[in-house]
């Protein structure tokens, strides 16, 4: 029978942290794995809260550290496989058909993206699992490009294990201050998202200017 988190005053009572606490206390490792699988499918569920909280629970004896790492990594792989499957079902032809309907893009842009993924896909999947925001999204193009499933599973497992270990161990060592991890990782997530928005904005502005210049030259 699982132990409750030892200090009631420190135990999260509501929100995502309270929900994750309930899962871990009730189901142990499988509960943590389920939470992380959902986090992969719904990125607004933050791994920077769920993983350190799982580490804190391990430090309190709710589950073992080995169980925490095993189940959260398994949950990561299961969630990533669901997104991979979505990309595989959507497929390359549908992606090209959708791309052709989008403004400001050219078929050559998608072809170059596919060529880039063919050259760097293994690194993208491995390192992408350790980057906030993109750690879930990277599974979709891997499915679209039909990366060999054993390769995808191996890379996803390795990258997820590194990410999960860092955050779970941080929660384990910090104890009652586990939520500090979420503050710092959340800040990194905002920076990454901000850089992505800036990159997209720069690309759109450049494309619009290019179209205007081409029209003037006609």
Automatic annotation (TrEMBL):
Subcellular location: Cell membrane
Primary site of residence: membrane
Entry keywords, A to Z: Cell membrane, Membrane, Transmembrane, Transmembrane helix
Signal peptide: none
Superkingdom of this protein's organism: Bacteria
Spans through the membrane: 68-91, 151-175, 181-205
Coiled coil stretches, renumbered: none
Keyword Cell inner membrane among UniProt keywords: no
Record keyword Membrane present: yes
Residue ranges of every copy of the VTT domain listed in the record: 45-172
Membrane topology designation: Multi-pass membrane protein
Family: Belongs to the DedA family.
Name recorded for this polypeptide: DedA family protein
Originating organism: Streptomyces cyaneofuscatus
Lineage, broadest ranks: Bacteria, Bacillati, Actinomycetota, Actinomycetes, Kitasatosporales
């Amino acid at each position: 029978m699982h132990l409750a988190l030892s200090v009631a005053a420190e135990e999260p009572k509501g929100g995502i942290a309270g929900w994750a606490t309930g899962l871990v206390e009730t189901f142990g490792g499988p509960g943590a794995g389920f939470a992380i699988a959902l986090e992969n499918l719904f990125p607004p569920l933050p791994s920077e809260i769920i993983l350190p909280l799982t580490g804190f629970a391990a430090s309190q004896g709710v589950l073992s550290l080995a169980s925490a790492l095993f189940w959260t990594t398994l949950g990561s792989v299961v969630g990533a496989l669901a997104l991979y499957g979505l990309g595989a079902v959507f497929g390359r032809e549908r992606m090209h058909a959708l791309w052709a309907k989008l403004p400001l893009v050219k078929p050559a842009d998608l072809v170059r993206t596919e060529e880039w993924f063919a050259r760097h896909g293994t690194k993208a999947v491995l390192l992408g699992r350790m980057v906030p925001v993109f750690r879930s999204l990277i599974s979709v193009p891997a499915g679209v490009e039909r990366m060999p499933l054993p390769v995808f599973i191996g890379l996803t497992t390795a990258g997820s294990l590194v990410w999960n270990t860092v955050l779970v161990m941080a929660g384990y060592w910090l104890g009652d201050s586990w939520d500090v991890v979420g503050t710092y990782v959340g800040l990194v997530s905002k920076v990454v998202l901000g850089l992505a928005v800036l990159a997209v904005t720069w690309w759109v502005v450049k494309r619009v200017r290019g179209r205007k210049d081409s029209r003037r030259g006609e």
